[in-house]
Specification:
Elements lengths: L3 E5 L3 H12 L3 E5 L7 H5 L3 E2 L3 H6 L3 E4 L4 H8 L14 E4 L5 H13 L3 E4 L2 E2 L2 H6 L2 E6 L2 H14 E7 L2 H31 L4 H9 L6 H11 L9 H17 L5 H15 L11 H5 L2
Parallel strand pairs: 1-2, 1-4, 2-3, 4-5, 5-6, 8-9
Antiparallel strand pairs: 7-8
Length: about 290
């Protein structure tokens, strides 16, 4: 039997990741704020734990995929977190989109206890998890990464390693700034074309045959036209990531005016009650501008 792994955070992405490990034959120890989200995994043989600390006591590698900085602090360095319960040389691998300032802080605190913290944010969505084709950005201690690499390759087929842990965090925020900018461009174009009675499907077909095309434009464009806003990436999480990116960029003197515009649109989407809709639902904001 393969070694046991810990997994904390069973949202849309986290649950798919945990399932991928389970299907690969790993015994899982799980924790999530909402216990019911673990039901299908427990039915498949995983073990529920009452705290992140309980997860950490049972494994050498703990993975986490959680929502924000506060949640990551809670599961790592606060009471009943992983830091105080991991055995020496064990590794906590966080794959969330969080602040580079926090990941640097956590790496230092873990190191002082003789344990390791890697930040490995990812680019991709649930289908990429299911086929093991996520793109992974690794920051952290080299030895810990080499030990974790076989596990990471279950989730992703391309890995970029960065000299410092915070650079991996910055890279994820940079990539998500592209996502924000692209969805703004796409949704405004769909609204514009509709208002001048051009079928948005025609616009997508033209893009498909040009250098302007992207897979994201085609998949999200089709879903928007169909009115399908089943969430793959929540509006509220996109706004969180935009805010983190602007804070991090501001700290190093990088101007991101396009992202400032996107932030305003996502704030309006939140006020419109779209927090739990797919991020492409900002088309509704565009329609009402």
């Amino acid at each position: 039997m393969k070694e046991a792994l810990g997994f904390i955070g069973l949202g849309l992405m986290g649950q798919a990741m945990a399932m991928r490990f389970q299907e690969a034959g790993y015994k899982l120890f799980l924790y999530n704020r909402t216990k019911s989200k673990s039901d299908s995994l427990v039915a498949g043989g995983a073990t529920w734990c009452d705290s992140p600390a309980d997860v950490a006591r049972n494994v050498e590698f703990v993975f986490s995929m959680i929502s924000d900085d506060n949640a990551l602090r809670t599961i790592t360095i606060e009471a009943s977190g992983t830091l105080e319960s991991l055995a020496k040389e064990s590794v906590h691998i966080d794959m969330s989109t969080v602040s580079p300032f926090l990941t640097k802080e956590l790496a230092t605190k873990f190191s002082k206890r003789g344990v390791h913290f890697l930040h490995v944010p990812v680019l991709g969505s649930i289908p990429n998890i299911q086929e093991g084709s996520l793109l992974l950005f690794v920051g952290g201690e080299e030895g810990a990464f080499k030990r974790a690499e076989p596990l990471l390759r279950i989730l992703g087929n391309r890995i970029w390693q960065f000299p410092s842990i915070e650079q991996a965090s910055h890279m994820k925020l940079i990539c998500n700034s592209f996502i924000a900018g692209m969805i703004v461009t796409l949704t405004q174009a769909i609204v514009y074309s509709t208002k001048v009675e051009i079928d948005p499907s025609t616009m997508l077909d033209i893009l498909r045959h040009s250098a302007l095309n992207s897979t994201m434009y085609q998949t999200k464009g089709k879903a928007i036209i169909e009115g399908n806003f089943k969430p793959r990436f929540f509006v509220e999480h996109m706004l969180k990531d935009i805010t983190l990116a602007l804070q991090a960029a501001n700290a190093v003197g990088a101007s991101m005016p396009g992202l400032e515009t996107a932030k305003g649109l996502f704030e309006r989407a939140m006020k419109a009650g779209l927090a739990k809709s797919d991020y492409s639902a900002i088309v509704e904001v565009m329609k009402n501008s």
